[in-house]
Amino acid sequence: MTIQLAHVSIAPPVLLAPMAGITDRPFRDVVARFGAGLVVSEMVASAEMVAAKPSVRARAELGYDAGRTAVQIAGREAHWMAEAARIAEAQGAAIIDINMGCPAKKVTNGYSGSALMRDPDHALRLIEAVVGAVKVPVTLKTRLGWDEALLNAPQIAARAEAAGIKMITIHGRTRCQFYAGAADWAAIRGVVDAVTIPVIANGDITDADSAALALAQSGAAGVMVGRGAQGRPWVLAEIATALHGAPAPKVPTGAALVDLVAAHYEAMLNFYGHDLGLRVARKHLGWYLDAALSPAQLRRPVLTARSADAVLALLPEAFDHPCERAAA
After folding, report:
1. Binning pLDDT at 50, 70 and 90, where does residue 66 land?
2. Average per-residue pLDDT in the chain?
3. Residue 65: burial class (beta carbons within 10 Å; 0-12, 13-18, 19+)
4. How many angstroms separate the CA atoms of 54 and 265, rounded?
């Protein structure tokens, strides 16, 4: 199955969600190499992108598979959103995605992210500005609504489609739920019924079984995987195999897993610089160790090592142990 957005083919329709502090270029590269229809950057603040703040521009930096990379922008002013979209397009982004779903208080207090669901007229002005600024497809990521009293995703989706949005991703929770409870995939069907463009289901999709159930309940055209990919960058490819017959990924174990983690770790050091990279990489190392069922006595030295050489020297033992072999 393929989702076609102008010149961009999303096949398989299994997408990597934008996650702040996680879906940086090194992580997106790892996921893309296993196989994903689309990978999405961390949310980029539009005004800071235009101001050329280095750390913000780095979030939008394209990598291994630029033709399958969307850059997600956020903001509350149409001018800055349009300018940020133009910059991302000029750098090679295949798609511009508009963030209208982030629930974080520091975002919603600035009237960005999911706060825009409380003011659909203003949200539409931002959408129109971005669509009018670029030639690449523009997509939208949002939630079911602000809270249970304002479940307006279908209405917003219909207006967004009329304004030129080519695909919509719906996280099956309200903003006020944050990430609590369970995603309501069935509620996404209201958005599917309201538009003719592809709708992607998001929220609590962690494996092939949950992906299949999300599609069945929502009627969506594809799924987006977020936290389920942490420590398991191959999971999108596994879902694509089960649901769409895509080639099965070779899930690394033992020495192959050590090589993967080491390469990802070194890519992070190159991307961020040694000192910052050492700190940022720890969460990814922790997720890999969790997925491999590494025991605490092997985890702790890896996550507390003070040099990259020490971390790399500890990886073989941390990932090649009886628990990891049994899980494989």
Report:
1. confident
2. 93
3. middle
4. 21
Residue 245 amino acid letter: G
Q: pLDDT tens, 81-121? A: 999 999 999 999 999 999 999 999 989 888 899 999 999 99
pTM, entire model:
0.94
Q: Which residues pair with 300 in a beta bridge?
A: none
**How many Å apart are CA 77 and CA 74, to the nearest integer?**
9
pLDDT above 80 for 52? no
**Rounded Cα gap, residues 94 and 67, in angstroms:** 5
d(C-alpha 32, C-alpha 236), whole Å? 9
Which pLDDT score, from 0 to 100, does residue 58 have?
A: 81
**Which of 17, 12, 10, 11 lies closest to 204, judged by CA?**
17
102 classed as catalytic? yes
**Separation of alpha carbons 143 and 136, rounded Å:** 23
- Per-residue confidence (pLDDT) for residue 162, from 0 to 100: 98
- Of the candidates 102, 134, 246, 311, the residue annotated as catalytic is 102
Q: 273, exposed or middle or buried, with CB in 10 Å at 0-12, 13-18, 19+?
A: exposed
Strands 44-45 and 3-5: unpaired
Q: What is the mean pLDDT of residues 228-248?
A: 96
- The rounded distance, in Å, linking the Cα atoms of 222 and 8 is 15
Between strands 167-171 and 138-143, the pairing is parallel
In order, the DSSP letters of 133-173 are H-SS-EEEEEES-SSTT---HHHHHHHHHHTT--EEEEESS
